[in-house]
Amino acid sequence: MTRQPNRQPQKAVGTPQSRVDGRLKVTGQATYAADHDVTGVAYGVMVDATVGRGRITGVDTRAALDQPGVRAVLHHGNAPRLPYVDNPGSNNPPGERLRVFQDDRVRFFGQPVAVVVADTLEAAQHAASLVTVTYAAEPPSTDLTTAPADEPQRYARGDAEAAWAAAPVKLDLAFRFSRNHHNPMEPHATIARWEGDTLTLWDKTQWVVGGTQQELASVFGIPQQSVRVISPFVGGAFGSGLRAWPHVTVAALAARVTGRPVKLVLSRRQLYFGTGHRPAYTYALKLGSDRRGRLAASIQDIRAETSSYETFTEAVMGPGHMMYRTPNVRQAYATVPLDVNTPIWMRGPGYATGAHVVECAMDELAHELGVDPIELRLRNEPETDESSGLPFSSRRLRECLATGAREFGWHRRNPAPRSTRDGDWLVGTGMAAAVYDFGRAPAQAHARINADGTALVQAATSDMGPGTYTSMPQVAADALGLTMTTVEFRLGDSLMPPTPPHGGSMTMASVGSAVQDACDKVRRQAITLAVNDARSPLHRVNPDDVVVRDGRMHVKNDPTRGETYRQLLGRNQRDHLEVIGSWGPPEQSRYSMHAFGAVFTEVAVDDRLGLVRVRRMLGVYDAGRIINPKLADSQALGGMVGGIGQALLEHTVTDARDGRIVNANLADYLVPVNADIPDLRAIYLDGGNDQNADPIGVKGLGEVVIVGVAAAITNAVFHATGRRIRELPITAEALL
Amino acid sequence: MFPFTYTKAADTRAAVAAGQRGGRFIAGGTTLVDLMRETVERPDTVVDISGLPLGEITTTRSGGVRIGALVRMSDAAADRRVRNTFPVISQALELSASAQLRNMATIGGNIMQRTRCTYFRDVSAACNKRAPGSGCAALEGFNRSHAILGGSSQCVATHPSDVAVAFAALEASVHLLGPDGERGVPFTEFLLRPGNTPEREHALRPGELITAVEIPAHPRPLRSGYLKVRDRQSYEFALTSAAVALHLGGGVVRAAKVAAGGVGTVPWKLTAVEQRLLGERPSDRLWTAAAAVAADDAEPLAHNEFKVELLKRTVERQLRVVGGTR
Amino acid sequence: MNGERRTVTVDNRTSLLDLVREHFGLTGTKKGCDAGACGACTVLVDGHRVNGCLTLAVRLDGAEVITIEGLSRDELHPLQQAFIDQDAFQCGFCTPGQIMSGVGCIRERHTGSASEIREWMSGNICRCGCYVKIVKAVQQAAKGR
């Protein structure tokens, strides 16, 4: 990437800024989907299927309709037919979308089968409980291990079977992963309002334009511009907002039929049936190496659940074919259609699963060989990405491992299992490497310099928590030569320029680069205006020699010669200058692009009582340039908390008899609470700036920070107890 | 939530009268409102008893402690007399729920709280406790959290309270006021095992109101404590728990009060463990030997077999914590 | 309600949480689970932190309720400021409940150590995983008390 001759000084980027939306959030003024005040709103409450598969034989709505304030009960028997125009975009997986209220089929337990609309929430909830639905039930298929699989995706290099057979050291391991649910604190919610043929949605979404707007337009068969999506705040999502789920359509349908704006907030229970999940997996791995631990062969057979109507896949094969130098690899990844709702990407998608297997196996191999686990990884560090043959845009895993080992005190460790005891607790340490194939996609942004010298930058992206509201104005402020306080950044509205999904660690790289492009261009527009303006002190100066600081353009080597944006625009009677900027990755990438990390942890295990407690954790990351260290730190610590949940607590349980999720609530599906979390520490490697990845040098960090956490914990549990646990989460019963 | 009539009881007599007419008492409301929202509970009338004068903690003449039914969990846990005399009660309370819920929920309501069995809480599932005769989905379903003691072919749901385990251990009694006046019921007889009538959970007669829980005096010094084993470090119901109180004298165990939670359809008094301890010299070996009989009657289900061993170890650990390592 | 006397006629079934959100337009208090299992709806009733979702509004005749909107006027409450300083939130959805719970925690004097704060703040789930910084924010505000 060639640098622009007049590259702006970087004053905001890289500094620890507090969140610009902080005051709104701590005072309760931030408006999440269900918080918008829409006049005349009615309340929608969905009724869910209570069988795991079958047909609806009857819907009795009389008792519900008799309730005061009930406006309508919609179901497949009376709902209007919807066009459901094909939409291969919007993160819809291959298959056929669930078409709400369009037929009598029940495809999974909890599927929406009716919706009640009433004047009050209390009436709608009560009436929903009075709708009687009868079914011709069939036994659902919910067992990942026994159900027939689809034709697998395959990857191979070398001759893995022969190399494994010949390898002097062999491991043959079988891992299992429970289904996990995102469980953002904000339940998914939609307020839908029609004005003629125009639909406005206040929605919880991670993809305003390409997701919710495009999908709802296709469902209703209307032009995309006829759907407006407003989503200024997202109360966490972690992937659950990457699709427009059926309830969004239900809200819009209910509003259409009743002629009222309808507010539909999913219950916590409904989130387990209606907004995707990280699929359950079985993952068998055969690993062969020489006696020095140099990997020779890796054979991987992966099975993952999907729904009966859509084929969901994710990048679970990545770590198993690119992380370590391995001449011979064979992978098969088969989806298994079950009577469940369709999965969706969840934080660290694919990698949080695949890397767990690889990193636990490396620990097992290190122990088998008597080699330090860090040393084993260094011995297998690849020169290039062997799966693509491409060089890494940057790969500083060695530094992550070295820094982590030093800061954690790794080398003080006695490698023997069960070697440290503290009262009733066995104490162990463990580590794992982390990797994530961060995304990048075309994005646009709109930048405007106002006559008063302030700027407004907009893009239709989201901020589900990473701090988009803060990091984007940091990029913009530097590119425009303004201070943070004079740049406003707005997001979350489909009227704004389109951006990729707010996920896959691609927002900063993609939208940030578009913001930079827009701001560079509008700054150059201002400079061009000045140098061509005979009344400007900058008249006839070479534009490449002009920089902007604090809103004042001046000659780089002569700060006395210049003027402010405000002076320039005022004199020229310009209301504003504006540009739509864009950025997109090249079609053919010349690099393999990944964020890397190393996670170290100390756990205490009371093996008499089956308890595991994390005592400390350190993550060291190679995530490229860090735009805002304060917020990046929070994101890393949050990733660790998510990983602790994946390792020790999170497990969606299905009753095989009817496909019912039996722990569909926050008292039984356990996520970490404050008392579970000790001191956590994150370090980002100094000097990160991956210009091979994108113009602003960032690699994305929201996903890599959860990867490897569960493996480090699992490996530490082995070190503490001598027990290998190959199933997540690690439960009391596994340890007793 | 089904519609209901809301009334506020002016005094205990009015409350009892309203209860006799079928009204459901509401105090903290943390269980009742939750279950009404799930439509598990559908009372026609809700009688607010929070204004009644049942919020006192007093020391009884014999040296026991009487906790009024409307004392908040947080207040009971923090009370100096409770803390000093029966740490096991304070600990059980503070290991329950969350600070917010403890600020709302009362002692009477706590022992009346209903099971966390997921099938009980889900009106689309079969449950003999909620809908007698509909069957028990837990028996052949997911039953990790269910009882290994005291279950029947009709129901295997655990009682979720922690403090009730301490009350059972300490042989507390429940004070009741009904149409026929006051009476006391031993705590271990107050909560009922499911048998063939899992819908009957307690010994209350129509209209009867819990006025207090009384913990009798025990020989002093009494050491006591509560251990709660759970997946998460806080804000979770017990997998297993143990309430232990010991009086040591003359080098031997003179009194032993032990009960377990998370394992029984009611708080489970471990009489066999107590018997094994009495008169013996405290030692790690004694704790192990006594705890070994804790699960003798256990009948585990498909997903809670681990609780059999875990119960023994939980009791053993807490005997050692309270009785000391020797 | 936040220092103001409010008279309102509501359905018996209306929770305090739905009262403030749907009737008073005070949407700072959040519904995360509606079952007392997450703490997002934490408010102060007569000075005590409670779950708004499990409190029937009809029972609050004469009670004093403080929500996040009533915690401060022009100047932020020290705990609100501490949340910003420590970056004790990401998505912000659980934040009003965390702050109201933290105010309760400080009033109850359960701030003697980090581990005490962790336990007494465990009734408020944060899925973004901001616990380390929530503890620091409570410590910061408790220190200035």
From TrEMBL, chain A:
Pfam families: Ald_Xan_dh_C, MoCoBD_1, MoCoBD_2. Keywords: Molybdenum, Oxidoreductase. Its EC number is 1.17.1.4. Residues 27-139 form the Aldehyde oxidase/xanthine dehydrogenase a/b hammerhead domain. It is an enzyme of class 1 (oxidoreductase). InterPro entries: Ald_Oxase/Xan_DH_a/b, Ald_Oxase/Xan_DH_a/b_sf, Ald_Oxase/xanthine_DH-like, AldOxase/xan_DH_MoCoBD1, AldOxase/xan_DH_MoCoBD2, AldOxase/xan_DH_Mopterin-bd_sf. GO terms for molecular function: iron ion binding; xanthine dehydrogenase activity. This is Xanthine dehydrogenase YagR molybdenum-binding subunit. It comes from Actinophytocola algeriensis. The lineage of its organism: Bacteria, Bacillati, Actinomycetota, Actinomycetes, Pseudonocardiales.
TrEMBL record, chain B:
The keyword Oxidoreductase applies. Its EC number is 1.17.1.4. SUPFAM superfamilies: CO dehydrogenase flavoprotein C-terminal domain-like (SSF55447), FAD-binding/transporter-associated domain-like (SSF56176). Residues 1-220 form the FAD-binding PCMH-type domain. GO terms for molecular function: FAD binding; xanthine dehydrogenase activity. It is an enzyme of class 1 (oxidoreductase). The keyword Transmembrane helix does not apply. InterPro entries: CO_DH_flav_C, CO_DH_flav_C_dom_sf, Diverse_Substr_Oxidored, FAD-bd_PCMH, FAD-bd_PCMH-like_sf, FAD-bd_PCMH_sub1, FAD-bd_PCMH_sub2, Mopterin_DH_FAD-bd. Keywords: Oxidoreductase. This is Xanthine dehydrogenase YagS FAD-binding subunit. It comes from Actinophytocola algeriensis.
UniProtKB/TrEMBL annotation, chain C:
Keywords: 2Fe-2S, Iron, Iron-sulfur, Metal-binding, Oxidoreductase. Transmembrane segments: none annotated. It comes from the Bacteria. The keyword Iron-sulfur applies. GO terms for molecular function: 2 iron, 2 sulfur cluster binding; metal ion binding; oxidoreductase activity, acting on the aldehyde or oxo group of donors. It holds the Pfam family Fer2. Pathway: Alkaloid degradation; nicotine degradation. The keyword Lipid metabolism does not apply. PROSITE patterns: 2FE2S_FER_1, 2FE2S_FER_2. Residues 1-71 form the 2Fe-2S ferredoxin-type domain. This is Xanthine dehydrogenase YagT iron-sulfur-binding subunit.
